[in-house]
Design goal:
264 residues, 9 helices, globular
Length: 264
């Protein structure tokens, strides 16, 4: 329990940047919290690490630093027009009460610890490396590559035509490949808990996994609504959304905009 609370404290510290701008609780703070949790796991369990658990924790660090660094760059280095447009989409939280901000802060930090818990429980239970943690790491690596590729391809496409939607590269596969990569990464983490997580620990692991899947679909809904508003009059865009799944390849789910219970 103490070690779980230590990880929660680490996540609270790194996600506290959201008090500057509340969306950072679940963006910049998210990325660096995951990286910090990975580092904390390496330190706390330094005497009982195996090849598989070292790789799993290093993936947290790589994933978190990449995501946090990318989001920081996008926040501070993008053009003024980009930041102006996003201000209309995401409020700065200046009118939000402190109680609401604290609620988001604590909930987000708890989610991050739950997401990473399959690796934590593997280390806590002294299970070392098995086939599942190896498979999980490979799946997570695929997710990390997909998410990184999607971000890079979108940046390149927007440099060519900043006013057009992106439908090239991995965006031919699904409309939100970065979110798909995110879900794939955490699917790998979850799979890595098989054979190590036991009893009530599974409840925490399932809550973390289900939580991030929900957040990703909520983000896809928000993006779809924004893109429909920006590109809805474009015949090419309308044709693109009719034939390209929004999130999961080969699954004929083309829209989530109508599902108001998805909040991203």
């Amino acid at each position: 329990m103490l070690k779980f609370l230590i990880l929660l404290f680490v996540a609270l510290v790194f996600s506290s940047v959201g008090f500057k701008k509340y969306v950072w609780f679940i963006s910049i703070g998210y990325g660096f919290s995951v990286a910090a949790i990975g580092l904390a796991l390496l330190v706390m369990f330094r005497g009982s690490l195996s090849v598989g658990t070292v790789l799993a924790t290093l993936l947290f660090i790589v994933y978190g630093c990449r995501l946090g660094g990318y989001l920081t760059y996008r926040e501070f280095m993008k053009s003024g027009s980009y930041n102006k447009a996003m201000t209309k989409e995401i409020k700065d939280g200046s009118t939000m009460s402190m109680a609401a901000k604290i609620g988001i802060w604590v909930s987000a930090a708890l989610l991050y610890v739950c997401e990473t818990s399959p690796v934590f429980f593997r280390l806590l239970n002294g299970k070392g490396t098995n086939a599942w943690v190896t498979i999980g790491c490979l799946v997570s690596i695929c997710g990390l590559i997909l998410e990184s590729t999607a971000d890079w391809q979108k940046n390149q496409a927007k440099k060519v035509n900043p006013h057009r939607f992106v439908d090239t590269g991995v965006y031919r596969l699904v409309r939100c490949p970065n979110y798909l990569g995110e879900m794939t990464f955490w699917t790998g983490v979850f799979l890595g808990g098989i054979g190590a997580v036991s009893g009530a620990q599974w409840l925490i692991a399932v809550l973390g996994y289900a939580g991030i899947i929900y957040v990703m679909f909520g983000g896809a809904r928000r993006l779809e609504i924004r893109q429909n508003r920006n590109y809805g009059s474009d015949p090419e865009y309308r044709a693109y959304v009719k034939k390209t799944p929004i999130m999961v390849p080969f699954v004929p789910l083309y829209s989530v905009a109508k599902y108001r219970w998805l909040v991203g």
